[in-house]
Amino acid sequence: MKTPLVFSVQHGCIHDGPGIRTTLFFKGCPLRCAWCQNPESWKPEAEIAFRSHRCIGCGQCRTVCPAGLLLPERRDARACTSCMACVRVCPSEALILVGEACSEAELLACLRPEYPNFEATGGGVTFSGGEAGLFPGFLAGLAERLKEEGIHLAMESCGMYDSRHPAMQDLMGHLDLLLFDVKIHDSALHKHWCGTASEPVRVSLKEAARAMVSGKGPWVWPRLPLVPGATDDAENLKAWALFLEGLGIRWLTLLPYHDHGISKRRWFEGMSQSPQTFRTPDTQDLRRAASLFEARGIRVYGPGEEDFQGMAFD
Ligand code: SF4
Ligand code: SF4
After folding, report:
1. Which phi and psi (to 5°) does residue 140 adopt?
2. Ligand 1: which residues within 6 Å by Cβ?
3. Whole-prediction pTM
4. What is the DSSP letter of 308?
5. What is the pLDDT of residues 214-238, one digit of tens each?
6. pLDDT tens digits, 136-172
7. CB distance 27 to 129 below 8 Å
8. Domain limits, the chain
9. Which CATH code for domain 47-98?
10. Using CA positions, which residue lies closest to atom 4 of ligand 2?
11. Which of 184, 200, 209, 237 could cross-link 292 (Cys pair, CB 3.0–4.6 Å)?
12. Is residue 243 within 8 Å of 201, Cβ to Cβ?
């Protein structure tokens, strides 16, 4: 069983499922979307990030580095021994460790103080990433504990998981809601923008929809990041609308792209910059995209506006 590293625990989230939620972000993702806002999630291993805007130039990191690296700018991963002396000494948290091992017991201890907020708002816990579905064994165990404690469970996914893996089926059986990212339908274009073919995503979505309809899986809620110039092409949106209609899914969230997080790529030694910049969609872009789904009978929501309880399928 692969044990994931956690790179963030965010309490008080309101866009990751119903009510107020705590979202657990696990490290590791098979995709490399050009517009990704969480590039710190890509590698499954722990990494040192340098946030230059916080650096006060004290030079302490360079003094303590046993490998003699010219910190903080030069962090040659091959020479670094991962001793973390630089991270510990940095007074302004400009150097930070991204990704920490957390046991199931530690995660439960961190989540339990939030239970009253979940109860008061109909919220719960959301597994996110990265791709949380890369770690079905660990998450199925955690999910089982959380369900025993009566907690609503959601998972955000890009669909790049093995839906036939027994542990994945176990995990799905514990989830209440699967927030499923759909991006680019055409496989060659998906490879161009996201780094892999799109067939596995469509297979996972089909399997999830089938389980939902038969009452054996979580509620499936597709979400499409609307990225002008990449995902907002009419042909792409029409292809997804047709696909969702065929699965009996008549609801979708459009996530307007924003460039928060793009600068994070500079935090990591050797990470390439995004090949292109994207603009934030305006009201007209969103309206046009929504109309293509509505033409297929699919109701379109903005983030945080979803009616997660009130949906029904034929
Ligand atoms: S973690 Fe790496 S870069 Fe930082 S002090 Fe240790 S050897 Fe040097
Ligand atoms: S210890 Fe931190 S603040 Fe000081 S130079 Fe290094 S990165 Fe900058």
Report:
1. -65, -40
2. 64-67, 69, 71, 75, 80-86
3. 0.93
4. S
5. 998 999 999 999 999 999 999 999 9
6. 999 999 999 999 999 999 999 999 999 999 999 999 9
7. yes
8. 5-44+123-301, 47-98
9. 3.30.70.20
10. 58
11. 237
12. no
